[in-house]
Amino acid sequence: MNPRFPAEWEAQDGVLLAWPHEGTDWSSMLDDVHPAFVEIIRRITRFERVVLTAPSAASARECLAAAGIDLGRVVVCEVPSNDTWARDFGPLTVIFNDRPVLLDFGFNGWGLKFAANHDNLISKRLKELGALVPNLKTVGLVLEGGSVESDGLGTILTTAECLLSPNRNPQLDKGEIELALASLLGAGRVLWLHHGFLAGDDTDSHIDTLARICPDNTIVYTACDDPRDEHYQELKLMEEELKAFRAPDGSPYRLLPLPWPKARFDDQAHRLPATYANFLVINGAVLVPTYRDPEKDEPAMTCIGQAFPGREIIGIDCLPLLEQHGSLHCVTMQLPQGVLP
C-alpha cells in the first residue's frame, strides 16, 4: 500500500509554530513580530490546538497569557531553534495503512543559505517530548514543506527551481526526485512549474508563495498585472503553465488569480516577497496574510473565499513577517488528525 499525503484542507489536530526569540534574526524587532505571532495563535486556537516551540517555555507562555490566549489550547515545548519557519522544518504527515506517519525530512537552511542545526532536530525533539503521537520516520532527503502542494489524491505541485536545487539533493536528477516523491508521499504524478519567482524570496521559489492547490480541482495563484514590474513576464509564463496542467479527471484546473500586492521594501531598499498565496487552511477557516493594502487585501480574501466556500476567511496582518522574507504559511505547519495526543 502506498502512503497518501493529505491535502491541507483535511481534518487537523493542530498547527506547529516556533516562537521568535533573541537568538533568531527577529532579535532586533521582537516587539513588532511577537504581536503577529500572538494574533496567528489567537486565530488558530479558535478552531484547533497549537504546538509552540520556544527556547524558554515560561517566557512564551507569559507573553501569550498577557495577550489573553487560552493556554489550554497551546502546548509549549522547550526546544531550541535557529528560526521560526515551521513550514520547512516541521514534519510532513502521510497516511499509511490508515494511520498517520510523520516524515522528518532533512532541512539544510534552504540549500545551505542559513544555519539550521537546531531546526533540523525539532521534529525529533518534539517526538521525544511526547508532543507528537505517530511514528516518526527520518528521511534521507532534503525537502521543505513549503516546496510541495498536495491534492490528497496523489498529485504533487512543485517548482523545478527548488526541488532541483544543486544544494539540496545534488545526487538526484528530476526522475529520481519524482521516484522519491512517489515512494515517500505517494505521488502518482508531479506537476512541475518552471517559471515564477518573488524577489526577496530565500527559498528558491517555494510553491506556497506562487500557486496553491485547493478543493474541487482549483488552483489559486499569484498573478502580476503590472507590465512594468520585474515579476510580470515570469508570472505570465507561470500562468500559461498552470493553464496547460490537467486535473486528475483530465479537465483543466479552475484557476483563480490573486491580486498583486503593493511592492514592499526593507530599510535597505530590497524588495520583500509579499504574496497572498501564503495562506493557511485550518478546520473551518482559512487564515489569509494581509499587508495593510486596502486595495488588494480585501479582494485577495474574496478570491480565497471562492476557493474555500463554507469556511470563514480571516485576514491577519503579516507585514512584520515580510521583514524576514516570509509570511503566514511559512511560519506554520498543519498537524493532521491523529498526530497530537
UniProtKB/TrEMBL annotation:
Coiled coil: none
Record-level Gene Ontology MF annotations: agmatine deiminase activity; protein-arginine deiminase activity
PANTHER family referenced in this protein's UniProt entry, alphabetically: AGMATINE DEIMINASE-RELATED
A Gene Ontology BP annotation from the UniProt entry: putrescine biosynthetic process
Organism: Oryzomonas rubra
Stated name of the protein: Agmatine deiminase family protein
Higher taxonomy: Bacteria, Pseudomonadati, Thermodesulfobacteriota, Desulfuromonadia, Geobacterales
Organism domain of life: Bacteria
Keywords: Hydrolase
